[in-house]
Structures are given as C-alpha cells and as structure tokens.
Amino acid sequence: MYRIQGEPKDWTEANLGITLIKVYPKWIDLLTSECSNYEYVSEIRSLKELTMSHTFQMPAGGTVYGTLLNHREALAALGDQVNAAPYKAAPKAPILYIKPRNTWAQSGDAVVVPSDAPELQMGVTLGLVIGSVACKVSVAEALSHVAGYVVLNDISVPHDSFYRPSMRFKCRDGSCPMGAFVPRELVANPDALAMTVAIDGQVVQQTDTGGRVRPVAQLLADVTEFMTLHPGDVLSIGISAHAPLAHAGQRVTVSIAGVGQIENTLVAEELV
Questions:
Q1: Helix (H, G, I), strand (E, B), or coil: what is residue 118?
Q2: Would you state the pLDDT for residue 6?
C-alpha cells in the first residue's frame, strides 16, 4: 500500500499525489490517511473538489485561438523570409488564427485526412482556458484570468504560408482535438512542461512549452491589449518547430506532462 509518511517538503513533492487525485479521486483517503500536516490535508481535499468540479467540455460559447510563430526556433528557421514583402519584418504583435467549431474533437475521435493532403502536420500545444474576462491585462495579473489548461493537437495541412495561412490549411474538420481540463492550481509552471508526439507508439517529437517568443503570461497580456477574451475561450501558445507529419492509418498520441494526453487515429477521406 502506498502511504504518505509525514508531510511533503514542498508542493513539487506533493504533485504526485495531486496528479493521482485527478485520475483516481477515490485515492484521496489513501493519500491523506497518514499525513500529519492537517493544513496540507485540507489543501489536498480542496484541490480534489476543485478538480472534480472542472470537467472539460467543448467551449459552448467560446472561441479557440491558435498562435503563429511563437516558438523561437520556428521563427528563427524562417531566416530572411520574415523580411520579404509585404511585411518586411518579423511580427511585432501576436499573430492569431481561429480553430472554429468544425475542428473541435476529443481523444478517441477519428481524424479524417483529406484526399488532397496525403499527410497532416501534428502540432502538440498547450491551451489556456480563460476563466474571467481578460481585457488589457498586465503580465503580473494575466494568469489570474486563466481557469486551467488543456492539451491540444493543432492539426494542419502542410503549407508555406507562415503569416496568413488559408483556412483550408488550418480549419479542416476534426483538426483540433482537445484533452481534459486541468485547473490552473495543478500546474506549477506552464512555461516548463514537457510535450511529446508519438506515432504508432513511437515518440517522434520531444519539445516543451518553453522557448517561446512570448511566454504564457506575456502572450495573454499582449493578446488582450488589442482584443478581449471571455470565459470559455481557449488560447494556444502555438506549436513548436519541426512538427511531425502523419498519414491515414496511423495512431497519433500527443501529451503534455502534468496536463494530459489525447490519442486519435487518422483515417482516409471517403469520397462519394
């Protein structure tokens, strides 16, 4: 039997127990039965109640936004292309696009590979679920407007339009599988989370939520400088460089440490 002896040295040590609560809430008594710190027990129980009250559903009235060129390595890989017409410079503000309702999917759903695209790009990324109205928020207060996080697979048809990708590249049906909601309190540092993509069980990309042009709080502050985000909106931090490709018949698993994973099988489009 797994038992906690004494009390944790800090919340990092306690994260194992908190993570288990998310998945196995009945273990709460086991995790606290031998803990001598009653304040810690109270915190654990409060986190259990918080976690169990936040079952993620597709954002009924919200909008899912993606962010382009927010990974330093991806931006650097473009080289002098960012200086070409018509923009002639690297972006000075966040570049956003929308993943509309037709793109939303869940873990286990089949993702259709369109007949005009033999492969799709798999883009693991972190989604910020907005919990309160965010308008012109400061970096210091930005995270207080985040209710929690979800893992996303921002799937795209491969393309070269890095500033203004066509909707036909970014908005194919089922091209935005989303995972379960994880409350903000359970993620200590959203800028330091390992992310992986596996195809048919083999890891093909290992990246993380760091290395961003705009870290999570800065991104939220900069976006809300020119637009208001509302509860239920989801803002992704953008995909990393070298996003892998997958084709019909393959099983794709994307995961973020401490947030979760989603798995989807790609299927070929059936032409009528």
A1: coil
A2: 34
